[in-house]
Amino acid sequence: MTLRVLAAMSGGVDSAVAAARAAEAGHDVTGVHLALSKNPQSYRSGARGCCTVEDSRDARRAADVIGIPFYVWDMAEEFDRDVVSDFVAEYAAGRTPNPCLRCNEKIKFAAVLDRAIALGFDAVCTGHHVRKVDGRLRRSVDLGKDQSYVLGVLTREQVAHAMFPLGDCTKVEVRAEAERRGLAVADKPDSHDICFIADGDTAGFLNDRLGGEPGPIKDESGAVLGTHQGAHTFTVGQRKGLNLGGAVKRRYVLSIEPVNNTVTVGPRDSLKVDEITAERPVWSGCAPLTEPTACRVQLRAHGEVYGCRAVERDGRLVIELDEPATGVAAGQAAVLYGGEHGDTVLGSGTIAATARRRQDSPV
Asked: Where in the sequence is the signal peptide annotated (predicted)?
């Protein structure tokens, strides 16, 4: 069946090959590049593959080679409100957000998809490395490039209108295909940094917007070990940048209290948690888990996967890990996996709280 497909083209190799595959499959494809910055010079420059000043031109050239119409959509206002401002607000509240995840949720598969459907398109195509099988998301065959975690926040309806042509191949194969197709982005580097922080200095970016207010760094007993210049520049699990001096044993950030501007540190063992509560559960791959269910959970992008039991209670997702995890930060997503091979996205929630449970405490 021929579909009207809107191909989101970032200017990188993945989205270019995804658009080419969709067109080659016989779909009626239109390329669109999202202009996300009100001031493009304030974003990172250089051929890094996402949200740079050069990317619109790279995307347009790729669309010309593929032979599809191409447009640029101005999404700067939505991006600033739903991604950049959210990023700053989350850090101000002592949480650690994932802006790429929020961009997928709020921009690519909400604002863009809504506009696409209104214009008569059937689906939005992207270059994410993830498979869509029987209407559910599964991990990419290239586990090193798998992006199912950052898509775990999508709703069932959003997944239904999404197309992911690259989930059945590796990144090496994508680059080779781009070369064969004559796409100039074949060797373009991947992007790894936050696109709206031009110099990669997250602490400096946050200080510019939130100010730098000195506060105490305390241990678990409440003893002051040192000071910091802004609690919002820290994240749970962080070890570097504490500047406590050689006399203090190695310490990690255990918690951040924005109200009293206090950072609490302790030994690595104190980071261990085995119970997680997550807000705003979304179920794209199964019905809500109303009974404790054995599955697997990923707690940060490219992080370790843990066996667990999960259940939704009173609108919250409660996850009991089979073994403790460290460095679990509020604001990150907890994405559940299950299915025959354990690689199907079941649902997700935003981590709100963590704890060590008593051994005799069931989920």
From this structure: none
